[in-house]
Each structure stands twice: as C-alpha cells, then as structure tokens.
Amino acid sequence: LAVACSKTIVQPVSGAFHSVYMQPAADELSAALADATFHAPTRTVYSNVTARPHATDVAAIKAKMVEQLTAGVLWEDTMRHVEATAGWATVDKVFEPAPGRQLSSMMKRIFPENVSKMNNV
Question: What is the pTM of this model?
Fold first, then answer.
C-alpha cells in the first residue's frame, strides 16, 4: 500500500495500546465513565483521536476517551493543529502521561523550540 506523503515510525511499546486488542478495556472504561461525574473543561484539551480540541459536551468527551483506547494516536497532527490555530505562545505545558519520553522525542523532531513545554507525568 503506497500513500503519498506518509511516514510510519515504529515506536517501541510494552503493550497493544491504541489497537483493537484494547476493546475489552474500552468496554470497561465506558461502563466506569457512565457513572463518573465530569465537567466541561475550562482549558483547551485535545483529543488524540481527532487531533482537535475536545468539545464542551461531556458525553462526547467520555466517548472520545473510550475511543482512544482502540484508535491510533494523532499526536503529531495534534501538535501541528496547535501551531496552525492557537499558536505555541498560548501553550504553557504539554503533558506526556506515559513512561519514557517518546512524545518529547517527537516534539524535538517537529518543534524543537517547544521541547521545554513537555512535562512527563
């Protein structure tokens, strides 16, 4: 399969995260979130499924949280969308909620001037 202007980078991972193999976990998360109380975000929070800001609709946010377990991560697309719309001057921090610094490495490659905004949590 040839796709113009596409690039695939194999990332070392410890599990089948963001794949169909996570469907049982997605089902459990959906059930847990059904009873969870959420409020609309007061800051911009991006979905790694759409590479766009989450809507303010709490039900839609919960659905995207479940979907992220089985969907691919559009992290670079998200970072490029931030640059194209809000601009990096509006961003205080980018959180990397995963072991290691894979996202920081990607940031260094695409926007090296913003690596200092990365926070591994």
Answer: 0.78
